[in-house]
Queue: 4 jobs
Job 1
Amino acid sequence: MTSVHFDWRRTERSGLPEAVFCASKSADQIGEIVNLALGRKHSLLLTKLTEEAFEGLAEEIRARLDHDSLSGTAILDCGLAPATEKGVCVVAAGTSDMPVAAEARRTLGFHGIDAPLVCDVGVAGLWRLMERIDEIRRHRVVIAVAGMEGALFSVLGGLVPGLVIAVPTSVGYGVAEGGRAALKAALASCVPGVVVVNIDNGYGAAAAAVKIEALRGAQ
């Protein structure tokens, strides 16, 4: 008897398929979901799958998954369409924010969006951001990923015409530890139109961008 009850028809209701959140699942549970998906020829996105957890999966399951250790994601491809650029980019303040930025980018790719990545443009060296700002401004949706004090969110919000989705990360120490300073900075931004997802939630930011692009395409 199966121990999981996966939502195979979520796309029909909400526009996005269920992703497999792996952080609290056993190797057997993950393997069971993958096998069920294989039987249905149903592509899967797995998130928060660490290298250690991936190595704990059965060899035949690992062989079917495209695992990326940086983002902690894995993809079961049962016929995904090639990703193309669709007006979304990911901007990361520093290389320490890359795991969350990579999660957002991999999620976008799973949903058919090839999002350029602009990395290491934190406001401590504002010239780095200004060198890339024209490139960033060309996109309708900008997923901004930053820890510490999260200043990048307001700076980008004041410079780009597109929607800024702020993703605070748990990068930091002292009062910034755990990402709460960046989260509060994003929520308290004086720039109108900046929206915020939870700490380290690259997946959630990408899911929002996917819905925005889908609505645009339906017009």
Job 2
Amino acid sequence: MTILDGKKISNDIKNEIADEVTKMKAKGEKVPHLAAVIVGNDGASLTYVGSKVRACERVGFESTMVRLSNTTSEIELLDKIYELNDNPDIDGFIIQLPLPPQINTQKVLMAVDPDKDVDGFHPMNFGKMALDMSTFIPATPFGILELLDRYNVETKGKHTVVIGRSHIVGRPMSILMGRRGFPGNSTVTVTHSHTKNITQITSQADIIISALGVPNFLKAEMVKDDVVIIDVGITRVPDDNAPKGYIITGDVDFENVSKKASFITPVPGGVGPMTIAMLLKNTLLARELHRQKQ
């Protein structure tokens, strides 16, 4: 059994990006600039955005955090987005989700310039991804592909089962794993809350990508020997014995499933660290895109 170490691979990617930025600076070129917009004071969102800013500092990117109050109107947020769209210094930006209830999330994501949409959420970029065109891939799916690639996990001709159908992970992963090329060329089954006899499906899978958000959902009896497990789930489970009062748990019963798996991602330290690394990679791609257009 091999651990797919997202912490190690994400550090490798950050080091590679930092080397690229060093070369840019030596040539007197503009370095990538990532902006993050956060509305409100959600603790998890603030922590996540803070980690993105620190990651930018580590690789030598410029970064800007735009903080807006919880009472910000949809019009005010859209005005800020249009301002970022028009700012030539900003290569890419993200809108941290979730947004307050007075704001239409879909409308906001649609307003982002697709060339600066480093989250890969704009319908134009999602459509390009579905058509195998060059574009920004959402950071978490992009990170999963990179893990499979760097550990040389065979995907061609394999049966991949995706648990979950969200627009952020499940839906894009089902498209990407079935695309031509590597990682890809697998036969994909998408399962969700209305799927019947899910154990019958997962027990036939060569690769399982679980993005359900239900702690320890996938049990050892639901998988076959030598399965590849990608656990995207991350849930805080109360635990009085833990220093913080909770533990971070994935969708997979790691202790027992890992005994049957050929490759498996841990939680934490698997897919999570890859997400920020690939956001940086998308920002690097956005900077190159803008340079080519100049």
Job 3
Amino acid sequence: MRPADLTSASPQAVAHAISQSRRNFLRLATGAAGASAFFGPSTLRALVAPRGKKAVVVTFGGGARDDETFMPDGQENIPHLLNELIPQATFFSQVVNKGILGHYVATASIVTGVYETFNNFAAVSPNNPTAFEYFRKDQKRPATDSWVVAPSNGFARIGESGHQAYGTGLGAGVILPKRLLAAALTSRSDGTRYEHLLRDNYETPLHAPSLTGHQTELNQMAEVLKLSVDDFSSHARSLASPDEMSVYIAKHLMTQFAPSLLWITLHDIDIAHSGTFSLYLDGIKRSDRLCAELWQAIQKDPGYANKTTMFILPDFGRDSDIDAGGNGFQHHRTGDAMSRTTWMMVLGPNVKQNVVVDRAVESIDLVPTLGALLGFNPRYSPGKPLPEVAA
């Protein structure tokens, strides 16, 4: 489907065209096979989780359009995804988000497997149980076995729901590196040197919660991660972005606890809201590199190698350049197919390599898929486990 055709096409047709373009490109670039060559109806049988498995989930807060990634002019921005990761992955080319297109509420929807409906800028917990609560309760796992590293003060409650059947005490530990850095800088005179790491909201600064950290949190972080405040602050100064700081913390968690379920949300791409195209491209390139770094760290770590499934997906897309109601790469306001249709790649020891899945799936299918892998029942999620991954 040519770009000009998209203006009059149905949302379903647009979503399919986006998926087709990704699939065709990947088959040309990597020789990827279609999933139908490997999977059939028999894989929809009941799924049994193998023991000792781990999962690492990486979401992008702020999707990247195909124009800047999978299309010919954008391929130079994702060399690691294209050349290193996708050849090892099963790639879902049509992942649809049918919920609210705000980063916190959309991430909460992915985490719970239910389309959450709260105000994106409200300091509230998800209404439905999270993957972390399902996992810890069903598998009787300790608090140290499930963690979230989140980019913004607004994500402080992402690890634990307000659901009465789960509630307090069963969620994931949540580390907010920006808030920890803010606490570390309270007694320093060179705080301006860290300003590029402390921007907390690119979309609507007026709604951003105050980025304040507490010494208690900082001391707890130092104790938990065996990382001194001085080392943390000094290393932060050498980093180019908040996402690099998040990956730094995630690697420390892997070393200290080897959690079975680790969730990292990257947020640099969302600087697109500033309207500066070059910074948006920088965010894409950095996310591409950091995903490869995480996968390499998994392969080198004895606690993760050969037992870890890694999921990489944007929370949703961005507006197209041809939608009169949108702002192109800058925003995701229209709710059209371009904003809702994205992708996911899955890598791991039991995942088929260099395979493209062209059928439509939903972002809320991730939690049931994690449940099949890690042995928990996401009983309140209407999503479905993806047989290509969970079989």
Job 4
Amino acid sequence: MKKKPKIVLSTTQIIMLSFFLAIMAGSLLLALPISSADGKGVPYIDALFTATTSICVTGLVTVPTVSTWSFFGQAVILFLIQAGGLGIITILTGILISLHKKIGLGDRMLIQDAFNLNTLSGIVKFIKSVLAGTLAVEGAGALLYMTVLVPEYGAKGIWMSVFNSVSAFCNAGMDIIGQDSLCGYVHDPMVNIVTCLLIILGGIGYIVWWDVIRVLKNIRRQGIGCFQNLTLHSKIAIGTTLVLLFAGTAVFFAAEYHNPLTMQDFSLPEKLQAAWFQSVTTRTAGFATLPQQDLTNVSAITSLLLMFIGGSPVGTAGGVKTVTVAVLLAAAFATIQNKEEASFFHRTVSKQAISKAVAVVSMSFIILFTSTLLLSAVTDVDALDAVYEVVSAAATVGLSRDLTPALNLWGRIIIIITMYLGRVGPISLVVAFHTKRVNHHIIKNPVEEISIG
């Protein structure tokens, strides 16, 4: 009798499947009566939406997190956020390491693909460092939040601080403080500073963490080391992040300065603080100190651009990533200047990196266009609100112009799918379903010149 062929999943397919199964498990837990604040349970579509936005660290919600879910439900959401921010594979690997289990080659390849690393060398050490670093930063963030929330809410403020710290570091944007995100703390320096630091640290990427630490150690031990001693990846990630943060702050400050619905009555320091927070949170964090529906069109369009770009690779942020956009711009300027190669800091960018950047941005645009078209077809909403919702979902941001709770069933399903595609990545989707293997070194298509532009 002929044996059935064994189903072998690629690492990309396993990663996508792990997120899907986590969403299904989370939705079933959140649908239980024990998860709801009233003990009656919530409609399954809301449980599914919440599980998806949690594991995809997006932050869009159809029901208020603070009043809908019980402590058990909030704990489920927090676990999903942590698992989504670090990655399911990272959590499972951490458990295996704590149990002193051997991490095989297959597991190492999964981790490599999950973090988009270039080598298998030092994978286990990398995971240990990620888990330890995450715990340390989230713990510090929780303690700082407690200085504000414990005096205000008592013992309950401890849980709120832990929840907010994990959510901010994982760039999830969900909170259990109020129904208007952090708008009530728009003038609070501690909440603003801690939240911004957690968002930036989570979104800058773990690779940059270790590289900066390496350079700082060299300064302390040998008296050498500065920006130029960082790797090319870190230079691009840090440089692009700083440019976007300060440019975004300047635009929001100018656009909202006289807006009576947002910052008109703020003092100058308060305006700068609010503008800075808006620039930081659009890096896929999803917290809001200003009502997004009250922003001027200039601020809304700027937010769309910043959300689309997102954070940096190998971190907790979403979007097409800072390095991706920087590489595309470098390639574009190289072409304009008739240069054969794109470069940064006297280093040549590989053709493979440019091709991948083009693929990521192209596929992201396709997802955004399709989702916006479908959402507009099934709901009667303003075009800007629809685009804002879709970009926020695809880039796993979580900012909304107060549209999410008003979505109908089909609208919610579209946003659920968009969040999932945004979290697993558009390229991963294509790779996962492209199972045909061809030796491209043997079979090549003929080359023919075409005109561009």
